[in-house]
């Protein structure tokens, strides 16, 4: 427990590796204070709702295409306005407010079935409703005025975000695609450092730190570009951005394959000279080219095309020198030639990207490579289809909606009995803290409570020393901008400045300068209710969810390998669309499994299974995929009958073993023994059908790569077996063992 408490304390104080959202903070501050000043100057009724509408609508603006932003902000404004009007009416009738709160909050929490944007809208609508219930008006006209004023504040926030800031329709997509090349550059630089002879576990750390992050960056760019291009007649710039996105994805895959080849080289192949020095230089030059692509993609004007001078020729020259001295074995030479091939292909992809990026701002140019595949258009399924799919207690969304609805209703009921000052602070705390998963809820509760205490203490100090309204308004503008700017860094820090801002606003409006302790007490009550609802209402531990996520990632690995094996059976390279789709599915499935594991680590648990086997499963799922990526980069395999027979046997055995492994992880049973992979790929080991196939004599590099794949599978199998044998006791979260990884 001490270790867990220490881990949670570190998580509360952990800062995300991003920059503060300064522009978003200033925009949110303007969205709040301009309506307040206007409302005060003209003595408008419902000035609070003007500020709430402006703040919530600016808060929901998460970037992306302008069409998607306008739709999200407008939908949120309408939902919040209706919630404000209905809540103001319901608040007049306490006996009606309890059941309607249950229905309204549960329904809006269930909106998460339509995605993350709908979940944010639903949370804002539910929060607005409970505020309106706690601040009832004096009749229907007051309720309509509340909704109308909220819409007015929201309209100002939308004008501020979408009109007063320069509108460049493709700017979000350009920045998203540029971020992909920036991630590729980071990966190339890290790979150059690791390949110079770092620790043995550096290769594993490289995969853990880079692969998931880059895949998420690529998916974000894909989503942003799809939304930007929807409904547009102009196709030139959109198509060129698509070519750039494909080039970034292809360069990422090329670097993964290159890393696998470099790791398999082991120590320097020659005491006279290591040809990998040429690879290190080429990787650094590749990183510089990727940085050039970042600049070219982000800027609007035409520019001179950079002329990179790196490829695989320097490595081939070094190999020729070593070969003439007889310092290379056949396998070493084959591996290094494969590295040279991958570098040359990487340069070709970079050339396509450079040509396209230089032509990005202008009209279509003849000869520009067309995109190999279009982005999938956003589908619009029936509104009822997601609802039907989640109308079961097995659905995490429904369980969370019911949990939030019941807990919020309990908070409203308690407030109606004890009538604490600013009772809506209790219900807002409940709605803010409760997350679909236990771990994030616990972490957010800690951040919310600690942030409120610190912010409350600061508010007490400020209100004691400073009560001049004009100076106070200037200070509040700064704290409002700070609280929104700091959201990406740390939620607890956001809570500190949000508490300071809204407590001082409430004190300034009411003239009561003693509200900070009220805010702290109400937050403690709301936090306790949120944790009680999370732990006692249909809680499902992440230990129950993780096996399904891990099995899905393993099956995605199996599907990725299946694309390769089917191509081998046809005697041709894998089809690019099928390969890209399988690779993307694998990346997303692995990201989901890793997110589930992180939630598992953040859950407060009295006991837990050993973590090392789970970490090894996650780590080597990506390593298995990396070897498959290297195999997929091969343009052909030897077409002799012996090779085809060896590949057929190996593929069938690997497919069966991967499915058994996924099933074993899902159902918590030991996996069956692995087949004799070394006999199947022909290490001259006898098989039941006769002598082994000498695959190494005809295709030594292919055999070496299949051996590597079999070793990754062996590590995965061992981790699944250890998971069943490990005692249920805490194990420190160290890096997984790297023995036999290569």
TrEMBL record:
Pfam families in UniProt: FUSC-like, FUSC_2
Superkingdom of this protein's organism: Bacteria
Residues that span the membrane, as ranges: 28-52, 72-93, 105-135, 141-165, 445-466, 473-506, 518-538
Record-annotated Integral membrane protein YccS N-terminal domain positions: 88-236
Segments forming domain Integral membrane bound transporter: 411-532
Major site of localization recorded for this protein: membrane
Membrane topology field: Multi-pass membrane protein
Polar residues bias spans: 731-742
Region (Disordered) residue spans: 722-742
Family to which the UniProt record says this protein belongs: Belongs to the YccS/YhfK family.
Protein name: FUSC family protein
């Amino acid at each position: 427990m001490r270790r867990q408490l220490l881990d949670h304390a570190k998580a509360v104080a952990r800062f995300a590796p991003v920059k503060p959202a300064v522009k978003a903070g200033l925009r949110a501050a303007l969205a709040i204070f301009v309506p307040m000043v206007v409302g005060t100057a003209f003595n408008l009724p419902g000035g609070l709702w003007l500020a709430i509408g402006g703040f919530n609508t600016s808060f929901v603006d998460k970037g992306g295409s302008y069409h998607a932003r306008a739709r999200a902000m407008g939908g949120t404004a309408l939902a919040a306005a209706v919630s404000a009007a209905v809540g103001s009416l319901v608040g007049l009738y306490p006996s009606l407010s309890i059941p309607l709160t249950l229905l309204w909050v549960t329904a809006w929490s269930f909106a998460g079935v339509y995605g993350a944007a709908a979940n944010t809208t639903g949370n804002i609508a539910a929060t607005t409703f409970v505020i309106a219930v706690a601040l009832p008006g004096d009749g229907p006209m007051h309720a309509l005025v509340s909704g109308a004023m909220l819409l007015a504040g929201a309209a100002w926030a939308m004008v501020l975000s979408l009109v007063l800031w320069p509108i460049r329709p493709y700017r979000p997509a350009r920045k998203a695609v540029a971020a992909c090349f920036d991630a590729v550059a980071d990966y190339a630089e890290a790979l150059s450092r690791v390949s110079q002879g770092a620790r043995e576990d550096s290769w594993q750390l490289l995969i853990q730190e880079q692969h998931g992050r880059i895949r998420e960056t690529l998916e974000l760019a894909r989503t942003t570009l799809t939304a930007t291009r929807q409904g547009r007649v102009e196709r030139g710039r959109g198509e060129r951005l698509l070519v750039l996105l494909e080039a970034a994805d292809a360069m990422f895959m090329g670097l993964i394959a290159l890393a696998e080849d470099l790791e398999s080289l082991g120590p320097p192949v020659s005491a006279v000279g290591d040809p990998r020095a040429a690879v290190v230089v080429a990787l650094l030059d590749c990183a510089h080219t990727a940085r050039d692509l970042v600049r070219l993609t982000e800027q609007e004007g035409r520019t001179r095309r950079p002329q990179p001078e790196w490829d695989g020729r320097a490595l081939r020259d070094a190999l020729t020198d070593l070969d003439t001295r007889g310092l290379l074995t056949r396998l070493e030479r084959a591996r290094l030639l494969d590295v040279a091939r991958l570098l040359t292909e990487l340069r070709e992809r970079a050339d396509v990207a450079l040509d396209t990026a230089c032509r990005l701002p202008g009209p279509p140019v003849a000869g520009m490579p067309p995109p190999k595949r279009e982005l999938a258009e956003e589908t619009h399924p029936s509104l009822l289809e997601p609802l039907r799919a989640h109308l079961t207690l097995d659905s995490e969304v429904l369980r969370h909606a019911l949990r939030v609805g019941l807990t919020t209703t309990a908070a409203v009921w308690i407030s109606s009995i004890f009538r604490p000052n600013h009772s809506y602070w209790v219900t807002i705390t409940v709605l803010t803290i409760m997350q679909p998963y236990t771990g994030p809820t616990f972490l957010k509760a800690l951040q919310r409570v600690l942030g409120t205490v610190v912010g409350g203490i600061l508010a007490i100090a400020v209100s004691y020393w400073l009560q001049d309204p004009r100076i106070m308004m200037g200070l509040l503008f700064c704290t409002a901008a700070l609280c929104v700017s700091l959201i990406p860094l740390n939620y607890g820090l956001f809570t500190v400045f949000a508490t300071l801002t809204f407590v001082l606003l409430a004190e300034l409006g009411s003239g009561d300068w003693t509200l900070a302790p009220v805010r702290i007490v109400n937050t403690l009550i709301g936090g306790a209710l949120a944790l009680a609802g999370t732990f006692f209402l249909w809680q499902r531990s992440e230990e129950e969810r993780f096996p399904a996520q891990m099995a899905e990632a393993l099956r995605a690995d199996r599907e990725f390998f299946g694309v390769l094996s089917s191509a081998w059976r046809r005697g041709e390279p894998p089809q690019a669309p099928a390969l890209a789709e399988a690779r993307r599915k694998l990346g997303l499935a692995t990201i989901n499994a890793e997110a589930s594991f992180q939630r598992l680590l953040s859950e407060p648990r009295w006991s837990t299974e050993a973590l090392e086997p789970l970490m090894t499963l996650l780590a080597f799922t990506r390593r298995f995929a990396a070897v498959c990526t290297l195999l997929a980069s091969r343009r052909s395999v030897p077409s002799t009958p012996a090779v085809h027979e060896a590949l057929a046997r190996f593929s069938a055995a690997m497919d069966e073993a991967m499915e058994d492994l996924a099933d074993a992880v899902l159902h918590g049973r030991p996996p069956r023994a692995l087949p004799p992979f070394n006999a199947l790929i022909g290490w001259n080991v006898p098989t039941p059908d006769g002598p082994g196939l000498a695959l190494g004599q005809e295709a030594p590099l292919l055999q070496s790569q299949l051996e590597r794949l079999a070793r990754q599978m062996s590590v995965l199998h061992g981790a699944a077996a250890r998971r069943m044998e490990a005692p249920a006791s805490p194990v420190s979260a160290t890096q997984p063992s790297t023995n036999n990884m290569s």
